[in-house]
Amino acid sequence: MVGNFNDQLDGGDGDDILDVSNGQGNNSLHGGEGDDILLGSVNDQLNGGAGDDILNGGDGGSTMTGGTGDDFFWIANGFIPLTAHTITDFEVNSEAIGIAGLGITFQNLTITQVGSDTLISVFGTDFAILTGVEASDLNSSNFVLA
Fold first, then answer.
1. How far is it, in rounded angstroms, from Cα 67 to Cα 89?
2. In DSSP terms, which residues pair with 96 in a beta bridge?
3. Backbone phi, then psi, for 142, in 5-degree steps?
4. What are the tens digits of pLDDT across the range 56-94?
5. How many angstroms separate the Cα of 27 from the Cα of each of 9, 38, 56, 120?
6. Residue among 44, 94, 97, 105 at smallest CA distance from 70
7. Using an 8 Å Cβ cutoff, are 18 and 3 in contact?
8. In sequence order, which residues have a C-beta less than 8 Å from that of residue 103 and are 6 or more positions away?
9. What is the b/e burial string over 66-78, where b = at least 16 CB atoms within 10 angstroms of the residue's CB?
10. Helix H or strand E segment including 22
């Protein structure tokens, strides 16, 4: 399913691909049941639902909720996000965060506790906020850096 601007896409049952990556933002994507792929643009709401989902927040400012299952969250893929993404339900022991195409290593990440949340920054730019996650619980195994 493909969307553009202010669209609502619902995958329902099954393994779905919901794509607004070429859109103008402010979309709502819900994967539903199954192992879904949700591709955002900017300021989108991505909810994977039940299943092992892949969520890509796009250009920045997207809110990503994996739902039940072991999910994977792309916070940067070849470009620096315009504003930080928010990941609402990151599970430290079973999920991962991806950053690709920027030549970044784990040593380049700044992981900071901000109240009850964790801020992930690279070279002074905020990439993601993990709500309700302790910064001290994160390590290199939580990240895929390519």
1. 7
2. 72
3. -85, -5
4. 999 999 999 999 999 999 999 999 999 999 999 999 999
5. 8, 11, 13, 24
6. 94
7. yes
8. none
9. bbebebbbbbbbe
10. none
Distance (Å, rounded) from C-alpha 65 to C-alpha 43?
13
Which residues in the chain show pLDDT less than 70? none
pLDDT value at residue 6: 87
Give the Cα-Cα-Cα angle 111, 144, 1 (nearest 5 degrees).
110
Q: Which residues pair with 109 in a beta bridge?
A: 122
Q: How far apart are CA 76 and CA 90, in angstroms?
A: 16
Q: Is 136 exposed, middle or buried (0-12, 13-18, 19+ CB in 10 A)?
A: exposed
Instruction: Provide the residue ranges of all domains of the chain, joining segments of one domain with +.
Output: 8-145
pLDDT for residue 124: 95
Is domain 8-145 given the CATH code 2.150.10.10 in the classification? yes
